[in-house]
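Q: I'm writing up a methods section and want to include an example of the input and output format. Could you take the sequence below and give the corresponding predicted structure tokens, formatted cleanly so I can copy it straight into the document?
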Amino acid sequence: MTMITPLLSLHRFGLAVAALLAALLAGGQTQMVGHDAVNKSEPIPIDRLGAVAGKQYQGDGLSVTATPDGARLRCVFQRLEGQVTREGLWLTSTAEDSKGERFRLVAVALGRAAGERSAAVCEAPAAALRERSPRYGWVCDPSRAPLARTGVVEVAGQVARFIRPGLTEEYTVSVDGVRQDFVVGQRPGGEGPLRVELGVAGAKAEPLVNGVRLVLEGGGRKLAYSWLRVVDARGRELAARLEVAAATRLAVVVEDAAAAYPVGIDPTFRDADWISLGCVPGTDGQVNAAVADGAGNVYIGGSFTVVGDVIANRIAKWDGSAWSALGSGMGGDTPIVHALVVSGTDLYAGGWFTAAGGVAANSIAKWDGSVWSALGSGMGGEYPYVSALAVSGTDLYAGGGFTTAGGTAATNIAKWNGTGWSALGSGMGSPPSIGHDVSALAVSGTDLYAGGSFTTAGNKVSGYVAKAIVGAAGGRFGSLGYSPATGFSFTFSDATIGQTFRIQTSPSLALGSWTNLTNFTYSGPIFISDTSALAAPKEFYRAVTP
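A: Here is the clean output for your methods example:
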């Protein structure tokens, strides 16, 4: 391989694009690049998929049938079966890897959510629900009254009802799962929003962005209870939310001040509320970067705070079946992740943020699979940010808009070697960095390319794109001088010890115009002078390896 290191170049790269994937330069080591009508079915909305598929299904896998003591529910598509008795609904997981876990969610109290939830409200013991005790639990707050333990079961077509004074639970099945609705017949007395408290048994509740996740005891199967929708007797939709009061207690809070009763509470929109997890509904904000690691995990970064049904601040991981957050994600004033890159088992994130996982990290941070850590003091400047990352061997290169890296002057491009930051020559553009940023990086062999809005790289004219040679041989020109007696002089340093170099010169950069000035095996910084430059109108120099 031949390594070429121009000392000076006036050859323009005339691209009129502000961000092109490929380009960068490392100080004196810059090599410039020259320029010269069909019929089709109507799509089915995602919230209608279960209903449409259910209508086409023929069989008893989706059924509600009357039994001597109530009703039986079957939902083979979501691997759930249910039994409705005078004490409500019990569900059983029939998944292949399950252990026949039984679980339930049943309304236990009805009333008002007056201000903050009272500390005097007593939680319903899970054991009481599991053992069908005479009372579901104690409600010490007088604004909410306990519901009767038992009721009446009715079956009408494919709907089973569990009826108690003040509230009726309705159960139906579809391809999506078992749907559980609550109908409040009359407006409860008191002030504040309507609050229906639900007891959980056989599972633990965890909060999700759009609902609740239940983790079944024993097998650990996860189910979502979500997509809350509440309507009154006039069909008006009411503002409502699901709350997790404890691992075994939930609440539905409804703003019913202007509601006409009865009010129907459906934790879904047309489809099931008990649904197996595993869909990928996307994010609530823009995704700017995505990268995969060697284990098949995919990481995304951007301006989102939610992905799927998981809270994830600007960064998240997809393992092939579920999304997960990376700690507490990025923090700061409107944090954004612009770039991601993987090196071994480490993930690096760059962007506009001041913290990662609660740790101070300025514009760049590392995730090792468990925790976040800063890379020195990160990037500095008036408005520092990282918009591009690339890895070459054990070195990490970061590009963006900044004037320092780890406290060292570095204009829009810098290198992290695992322990510290260093500049790549004079960088891209000139301080201040605004308007000369690096927006793309790519590595090919020993070459690092950068693209962006800069017009100079390493103090050399380079419109929007440039290349840096970052191979192991290294080498840098410096201490430039000129004397009428000795001609042009410079030093050559920062190269690999034992590497052989040739210093060549050319008057025009044309191919075939380079001639050898000197050659040596590098053992340390070397001083070189060229008296022939006294007679030359201009001269270019480069260092090459065999």
